[in-house]
Amino acid sequence: xxxxxxxxxxxxxxxxxxxxxxxxxxxxxxxxxxxxxxxxxxxxxxxxxxxxxxxxxxxxxxxxxxxxxxxxxxxxxxxxxxxxxxxxxxxxxxxxxxxxxxxxxxxxxxxxxxxxxxxxxxxxxxxxxxxxxxxxxxxxxxxxxxxxxxxxxxxxxxxxxxxxxxxxxxxxxxxxxxxxxxxxxxxxxxxxxxxxxxxxxxxxxxxxxxxxxxxxxxxxxxxxxxxxxxxxxxxxxxxxxxxxxxxxxxxxxxxxxxxxxxxxxxxxxxxxxxxxxxxxxxxxxxxxxxxxxxxxxxxxxxxxxxxxxxxxxxxxxxxxxxxxxxxxxxxxxxxxxxxxxxxxxxxxxxxxxxxxxxxxxxxxxxxxx
Amino acid sequence: xxxxxxxxxxxxxxxxxxxxxxxxxxxxxxxxxxxxxxxxxxxxxxxxxxxxxxxxxxxxxxxxxxxxxxxxxxxxxxxxxxxxxxxxxxxxxxxxxxxxxxxxxxxxxxxxxxxxxxxxxxxxxxxxxxxxxxxxxxxxxxxxxxxxxxxxxxxxxxxxxxxxxxxxxxxxxxxxxxxxxxxxxxxxxxxxxxxxxxxxxxxxxxxxxxxxxxxxxxxxxxxxxxxxxxxxxxxxxxxxxxxxxxxxxxxxxxxxxxxxxxxxxxxxxxxxxxxxxxxxxxxxxxxxxxxxxxxxxxxxxxxxxxxxxxxxxxxxxxxxxxxxxxxxxxxxxxxxxxxxxxxxxxxxxxxxxxxxxxxxxxxxxxxxxxxxxxx
Lengths: 369, 375
Description:
The complex is a heterodimer.
Chain A: H1 9-20, H2 23-35, E1 40-43, E2 59-63, E3 66-77, E4 84-90, E5 101-107, E6 113-118, E7 127-138, E8 142-143, H3 149-166, H4 182-187, H5 190-200, H6 220-228, H7 235-263, H8 275-294, H9 310-317, H10 328-339, H11 360-365
Parallel strand pairs in A: 1-4
Antiparallel strand pairs in A: 2-3, 3-7, 4-5, 5-8, 6-7
Helix pairs in contact in A: 1-2, 1-3, 3-8, 7-8, 8-9
Chain B: H1 8-24, H2 27-34, H3 42-50, H4 69-82, H5 88-102, H6 105-117, E1 122-125, E2 141-145, E3 148-159, E4 166-173, E5 176-183, E6 189-194, E7 203-216, H7 222-258, E8 260-261, E9 264-265, H8 270-298, H9 304-330, H10 341-353, H11 358-374
Parallel strand pairs in B: 1-4
Antiparallel strand pairs in B: 2-3, 3-7, 4-5, 5-7, 6-7, 8-9
Helix pairs in contact in B: 1-4, 4-7, 4-8, 5-6, 5-7, 7-8, 7-9, 7-10, 8-9, 9-10, 9-11
C-alpha cells in the first residue's frame, strides 16, 4: 500500500536509476519510489567485501531472459521491508574486479531471497543478512551497462556520502527510545508524514531512512538536558556544548556553501566531500558531551535513563556513522585522492582477473566461479 | 541572509588583491620585513592606500571605499595567505572600526581620511600588562586639562605600536572608560618593541606620562566602542586564519605528492593522506564559519555576536592544527628556519590567542546559547 517514501529509495535507488537507468527503468521505478509504492534496499556489502567493495563475489549468471543470482549480502538496511534491492553482482570473473560487475533491480519478494535480521549493538535490528540462492532477475532490469556496474555503484556511493553527511547538520537525528522499525515507518499515513515534514523540515520528519525519530536538533536537546540537570554553569560542559553546536552549524553551512557554488553555475567544491566525515565526528561529540553532562546518570538506559534513554541509545549508536556508507577511513581516501589529488594506495589486486584473486569469500571458501 | 555567493565585483577584488600580494609580498619580502623593527614596507603600504584597501570599510564621505564586512573578509583572507607584513589589522580594521563605532562625527571627519588614504597609520591600544582585550578596568588614566585630556600609564600588546601615527587609547576617566586619540609625536609618549612569536606582526609597549589626548566618542562609552572594534578584528582574523590555513594545506599536499620514501610518494600512504583529508575538513569548515560570520555582519544579523565568536574559536584552532600538521607532513625539512612552514605556525599560534582565546570565545557563545535556551 502506498505510504511515505521508505527505505533507501529516495536516497540511493532513485538518483542512481535517474543517472544510469534506461527511460523504461526510470518510468518503472522512480515514480514508485516517490509515491512510496516501492521500498528499496541496497545489496552492496558482502561478508568478504566491505571497504573493498569491488571484490564482491555474489554471482549473476545468464539463464535465458533472466540472470540467476547466488551469494550473500550483509549490513542491508531496510531489507525486511524492501520491495526491491539495488544489487551488485559479478557477471564476469575473467576480468579485473572493477570491470566484471553488473547492477540490477532485484525483486525481493521471491523464493531465492532470504532475509535474516541482524541484531546491532544497540539491540535494534535495523539491518539484515540477505541470502541469495537461485534468485532471478530479468535482464531488462539491469541498471546501466552489463559489466558496467562499478560506474553505477560509484554514483550510488556518492549520493550516499553526501546524503548521509547532509543529514547530520543542525538536523542531526537522535534515535528515539525503544528504536523504531521500518515496518512502523511504512505504516505511517502519508498525510501524517507530510505534516511532520512541514513541521520540522525535509529530512527531519522523524521517519527517515534510519527510522529515527527526532528529539531535537544539534546541541539543543543537550543544552536543555544540562539546564534540567543543573549542569549548565559547569565550564567544561559549556565548552563541550559549544563545540557540538559549532560542528552542527558548520556541517549545515558547508552544505549551504556547496549548494551556493552549484547555483552560481560552478561545481560543488571540496566542502561537499566532508559532510560524511563531519557527521561521524558530530555523533561522537554528541555522545561525549552527553556523558560529560550526565555523569553517573550516563550509566542508565531505557526509560530511567537521561532523555528517556536517548542518551544511552545515542552512546550505542555513535560508532555507526563512522562505519556505514563508507567508513571514515574510506572517506579520507576519497577526499585525499579525488579532492586533493594525492596518489592512490597501490592495490596489488587491481589488475588481476577476479577469478585469480584470493580475496574476500574466495579466500575463505576458494569456491570456483 | 547568508548567501555564500560573491558578486562579480567581489571576485574582481579578490583577484586584484591576490595579484598585488603575489607581486609585492612574496615570502622573500615577508622574511626581509619580519627582520626589521618597523615590520612593513612604506611603499607597499602607500600602494594599499592608493588601491583603496587601507580605507576599504571607511565610508566614501571620509575618503574610503565604503565597502563592508564581506569585502574585508576577502582582503584579509588573501593577506593571511600571503602573511603580508603591514599594519592592516591595526589601522584598517581595529582603529577604523573603533572610530566608526564611536559615533563621533568630528573625530571621524578629522581622522578617517588620513587612515583611508594610508597616510596615517592608526592603531587601537586596549590591552595592558596582562594582554586582555576586555579588562575590568583600565589602569591607564585620563584627566581633564582644559579642552584636552592628559594620559598616564602603560599599554602593552599594541599592534604596530612602533610605527603608528595615531593611537586610539582606551583609558579610565572621571566619567568611566573612554577612548582618546593620541598623536605619535605627542609629549610624554615613549614606545618599546615587544619581542613576538609571530615576527610578521609587530607589537609594542607604549608609556604615557602626561600625554595629551583627544576624547573620541562619549566619555564612558569605551567598552561598547572597543567591543565593536574587537568584533571587526575577530572577523578579520578569522578570514586571515582561513587564508593561512588554506596555504598550509596547499603546501602539505604539494609536498606529499613529490616527496618519495619507500619507493613511492608519501601522499599515497594513508598515514599522510588521512592527515591531509582532516586538514581539508578543517580548512573548509573554517571557511564556512568565517564566511558566514562576514555575511552576518554585512546583514546586521541579530546573532552576529554568537557567530563571530564561534568563527574565531573554530578558525583559530583549525589554523593552528593545520599549520602544525603541515610541519609534520614535511618532516625534518619543515622544522628548519629556511622552510616557510614555521612562519605560518607562528602566525597561527599568535592569532589563536589574539583578541580572545578559543575557550574565551566559546564561553561567549555558551552564554548566548544558554540565554536563548532559557527564554
